[in-house]
């Protein structure tokens, strides 16, 4: 039986708007092959705008991290259109996706710092990727100062608290001034105060740098920092709401800076 080929998505001129960092249209994603092939994402349509913090929620296994890694050019786009910072990712090879990733900052639950390097040296490594060797120390110290670690720039991770390590990871993600930040459970391993401090810093820097932050989290404690909350369930984008609309729909108490519900 002959099957029709899946058409290659054509770039949408609207993505050239300076207001849009990410545009997703008709995105599907599958794991496995043959009888083991299983669909993980279904017809995702989404726009992420500059200067916004967007939180993505949903049950475990709903496809949140899969979507995040697709947007981050860590996986190949198979079906649909995914445009990031003006570039269509569908059909890109490994080397081209590496180029896209140079313009994205990544923050993960595990800070992934090198234990043998100081805070400044960990941040400097990100600067080196862009060839800024002469200014790497200055740029690293400036960004660490902005996240409140001016007095810890020469400390190694073993001598930093969990919250301080995550601040170093944020500094590393932001030091090259990316237009897009992707964060996967950045507060999951932190206590109440450290988690609040980390997302407050991210919120401030998003506005100052006019960058987009997409954050995956199960942590209801930080929902109030978002401009939008998108909810992914079984691979489907179920809702796209303001924080208060999300709270009302999910019977979460009123959102404010002191709201920490586990």
Query: In DSSP terms, counting alpha (H) and pi (I) runs of 4 or more, how many helices?
Result: 7
What distance separates the N and C termini? 53 Å
Q: Quote the average pLDDT.
A: 85
Proportion of beta-strand residues:
15-25%
Strand order of the largest sheet: 6-7-8-3-9-10
General shape: globular
Please estimate the helix content: 25-40%
The count of DSSP E runs of length 2 or more, i.e. the number of strands, is 10
Our Rg estimate from Cα atoms comes to 19 Å
- H/E element sequence: EEEHEEHEHHHEHEEEH
Low-confidence stretches: 1-16, 257-262
Largest sheet: 6 strands, mixed
Structural class: alpha/beta
Give structural notes.
There is one protein chain. The protein is an alpha/beta fold. It is 29% helix and 24% strand. The chain is built from seven helices and ten strands. It has helices at 64-71, 94-101, 119-128, 136-146, 162-174, 192-209, 243-249, and strands at 20-31, 38-49, 53-57, 79-84, 87-88, 104-108, 180-184, 212-216, 228-233, 236-241. The strands form two sheets. It has a six-stranded mixed β-sheet with strand order 6-7-8-3-9-10, with helices on both faces. A four-stranded antiparallel β-sheet has the order 2-1-4-5, with helices on one face.
Give a quick summary of the entry.
The protein has helices spanning 64-71, 94-101, 119-128, 136-146, 162-174, 192-209, 243-249, and strands at residues 20-31, 38-49, 53-57, 79-84, 87-88, 104-108, 180-184, 212-216, 228-233, 236-241. The chain is of the alpha/beta class and 262 residues long. Helix 3 (119-128) packs parallel to helix 5.
